[in-house]
Amino acid sequence: MDAETLELVQREYRTGKDAFERGRYRESVEALQKASALVQRNTRLGGEVQIWLVTAYEAAGMRTEARELCKQLEQHPHYETRQQGKRLLYILEAPQLERRADWLTEIPDLGAMAESDPQYRRGAGVKSTKPKTSQTSELEDLGSMNLQDNPFIWVALIAAILTVGGLIWLS
């Protein structure tokens, strides 16, 4: 592979990883597919690109493509890539757990809100009704704290003094 192609592969690979980390899975799949088409698949870099492509496929909802690529990676000449492919395939083929509805939080679609509506703008003419608090009110009230001496400390202190005194007297 010449230097120009290698540079192009690495650029597409970085683009795919960055898009994946930003949650842009379709863009990630496209960039990683370009990188995978340009790189020699049996090299270590080729294996890394394909592993990232598997995760991008899964994140984009393309589970069958992800499984097929994992099955191909099980035959990869690089040991670590082969192991990662096996682990990913195991995860992809694992049964989906049922999720109870009360475990999930629904996020409302904010795309329907008009951005120009002053009711939804942050800090737009809304006066705070919460009174400002001074710094002293944030401190804990000393009247609610237990300021009594713990009798165990006195017992332990007397026992330590007697032990040290006894050791000095015996020596």
TrEMBL record:
Transmembrane helix as UniProt keyword: yes
Transmembrane segments annotated in the record for this chain: 152-170
UniProt region (Disordered), positions on chain: 118-140
Keywords for the protein's UniProt record, in alphabetical order: Membrane, Transmembrane, Transmembrane helix
Top-level taxon: Bacteria
PANTHER family: ORF03 PROTEIN (PTHR36761:SF2)
Protein name: Uncharacterized protein
Species of origin: Desertifilum tharense IPPAS B-1220
Biological classification of the source: Bacteria, Bacillati, Cyanobacteriota, Cyanophyceae, Desertifilales
